[in-house]
Amino acid sequence: MADSERERIIRYLDQSFTEPVRDPVWGNIMFSRDFREIISSPVLQKMNRIRQLGPTYLVYPGAVHTRFNHSLGVYHIGYRIIRQLLTFSVCPELSLDGVRGFLCACLLHDLGHFPYTHSLKELPLKEHEVLTGEYIMAEPLKSLIGRALEIDPYIPASIVDENLKTDSREIHFFRNILSGVLDPDKLDYLTRDAWFCGVPYGTQDIDFVISAIYPHPECGISILPAGIPAVENILFSKYLMYRTVYWHKTVRCATGMIKKAIIRALDDGSLNPEQLYGLDDESLFQTCSGKLFRMVHERQLYKMVSETVFDDSDPVHVSLMDLQRRSELEEKIVDDIRNQGISCDDDSVFIDVPERINFETSLPVFENGSFRTFSGSRGLENFSRSLRMLRVFAAPEVAEQLKKIKDIRWI
User: Fold this and answer.
1) Which of 170, 235, 387, 399 could make an SS bond with 303 (beta carbons 3.0 to 4.6 A apart)?
2) Considering Cα of 128, then 129, then 131, then 132, what sign does the dihedral take?
3) Prediction pTM value
4) 192 CB burial (10 A radius; 0-12, 13-18, 19+)
5) Maximum distance among all alpha carbons in the chain?
6) What is the DSSP letter of 356?
7) Which residues contact 221 (CB under 8 A, 6 or more apart)?
8) What is the dihedral sign for C-alpha 371, 230, 53, 75?
9) Quick one: DSSP state of residue 342?
């Protein structure tokens, strides 16, 4: 990178970001005037009405922080990562437009995210990254980004949505920073979620982590040997947060009830996928009213009646990752319950199957002038298998009657 361009970028980062926004996790998050205009836009402010952790507040009452809070944090850490990488002469060639686009991508990366976190994740809908790219390339954001940041909106859109084609090595570099072992998304959400839930497990030493990163020409970021314990802490924190927060059985239950209600609405035609795009928490409940939504809203949740560790070698377990197969087994369970003389409606039972968790192992380590592969999470991959619990939940009145029945075969 030409010294003049590097100096322009550093001068921009060091001198333009003078307007603070207070954040309970990171303190002052500094914005430039052009980025303040972006965060004030109604499109971005919509994320103030989407809880970061969906129904987790039913277990941890403090977990009412929003995707807007999180987006500011990702932007903040993305800024710090880029500023740190620029201290090294081996940092790949970057442009001021690219850096602005990367920070914009950090700020807007969750713009297309659905309300209630993972409730809609398995449904046949567009991925939130694709929706984010579409929002960025549509009005009013397209013109706002072009005017305020003086960049092509395609830059942040293509950093977030990897389906958008690009031959730019710089875009690929930024994509790898935004999504990886040490990405600003994970560094913020682990610490932020832990802070708002009141648990100690996700807290990271961000200052030390960022001080230990080193540029990598393809992967974006590598880690110096001194930073390896911090990376291991991040990965183990992710495991603990899944164990205690993200996959808490009550959170899974509430999420599953919402998912069940939406699947029914999509199946019977009372709802179409296009109606789900762009919703916030409140408008989701207005659009998808019904018994299950009302029960979640009032914390009248289903009860767990069966629990077993998900077995990747069991073909029945694996088949349940398919929504259609899962629905068929739910219907069979309902029939079996009715055969026991217990009255229940079609939606009285649902099966919860958590998705696979990925503990990335591809982070390069820069040591003695060359790169090697970090492999510290391989053992954690095996350890984490016990997190995936295959559970059956039933409506409260049905679950109470099932206590008297001994010969129901769940799965």
Assistant:
1) 399
2) positive
3) 0.94
4) buried
5) 80
6) P
7) 81, 85, 176, 177, 180, 181, 182, 213, 214, 215, 363
8) negative
9) -
